[in-house]
Amino acid sequence: MTTSQRLLRTLALSAAALGALSLTACGAQTAGGKPAGAEPAMAKPAAAVTATPSPRMISGKDLERHPDPIVRAQAIAVRITNTCAPGTARELPPLPEVSDLAEPATGTPPVPVVPSPPADVPVELPSDLPPPPGPEATVSYDELPLNGVDRCAADAHADRVRAAFAAGAPADEAALRKALAGADYLPESVHRMPGDGALRVRIDLRDLSPNDNLALEVTATATGVRVDAFGAPLPGDPDITEIRRAGRS
User: Fold this and answer.
1) Residues 6+ apart with CB under 8 A from 82
2) What span, in angstroms and rounded, lies between the C-alpha atoms of 112 and 119?
3) CA angle 49-55-59, nearest 5°?
4) What's phi and psi for 191, nearest 5 deg?
5) Contact between 93 and 78 (Cβ < 8 Å)
6) Which of 89, 99, 111, 230 could form a disulfide with 81 if both were Cys (CB 3.0 to 4.6 A apart)?
7) How many of the other CB atoms lie within 10 Å of CB of 231?
8) Contact yes or no for 96/56 (Cβ under 8 A)
9) What is the dihedral of CA 113, 118, 122, 124, to 10 degrees?
10) CA-based nearest residue to 70, from 122, 11, 3
């Protein structure tokens, strides 16, 4: 399951849980807001109802401790970006605790089938849809410069990665991946670089971070790790391990 699919699944389960909570609360009352079976002494004007958030809702920095690693990773990336440039990235919607959500017995609900229009009815495309790339379009494999916000976010991520190896250098790739996962960098975002030199991986933050071109290169050293940030081109979505860095192989 891709990163975006996992996040959408989390949000879908959250919405379902909130709907169930609402129905349960409403079912315990009559239409007049009184407990079932109770008769009012006299008719009274309907009082205004003020909505209050469920106590099981979490938001803000609490999302960085959420049980779902996708939610944690996105919450951290959003906070870092908004620290560098307030208001740049939208906050994640509040989510209930994952432990409160019951997994359907049959797995993920089926995706509803949208009927296709009849063959003789032309399908109108959005007027602002960009033209498809021509045969001459090429994918860039050269790194991009980072702007001010990207550089600020990169420095914050680099500090978090170095802190994960404060106890010393990783013994092998498995230890390196375990430490990065402990710092809430998703395993599927960590890619081993080919070659026989020092242990080196790249963390692809293009999918989760509001900084669409941000990536990190982490190299094991004698005492810990070295972290270098660079810009990865987004058009064409080249593999993160194939991006050519300036002055490096």
Assistant:
1) 88, 89, 91
2) 21
3) 110
4) -125, 125
5) no
6) 89
7) 22
8) yes
9) -20
10) 3
**Please, what are the averages of pLDDT over each run of 10 residues along the chain (249 residues)?**
46 42 42 48 47 43 84 89 81 57 54 65 69 66 91 96 96 97 96 92 87 92 96 79 82
**What are φ and ψ of residue 188, in 5° steps?**
-75, -10
- Please report the pLDDT score of residue 49 as a whole number: 43
Instruction: In whole angstroms, give the CA distance from residue 68 to residue 99.
Output: 10
**Beta strands 95-96; 190-192: pairing state:** unpaired
pLDDT value at residue 14: 45
Type of residue at 165: F
Paired residues of 218 in beta bridges: 201, 227
**For residue 66, what are the contacts with CB-CB under 8 A and spacing of at least 6?**
58, 72, 75, 95, 97, 98
Grouping H, G, I as helix, E, B as strand and the rest as coil, residue 95 is strand
- 3-class DSSP string for 180-245: HHHCCCCHHHEEECCCCCCCEEEEECCCCCCCCCEEEEEEECCCCEEEEEEECCCCCCCCHHHCEC
pTM of structure:
0.61
| Residue 184, both tokens | 């809430």
Contacts of 112 (CB under 8 A, 6+ apart): none
Query: Tokens representing 110?
Result: 């089926």
Report the half-sphere exposure of 61 (CA within 13 A, side-chain side): 2
Query: What type of residue sits at position 89?
Result: A
Query: Which one, of 198, 109, 102, 210, lies nearest residue 152 by Cα?
Result: 210
Q: How far apart are CA 14 and CA 83, in angstroms?
A: 27
Task: Provide the 8-state DSSP code for 130.
Answer: P
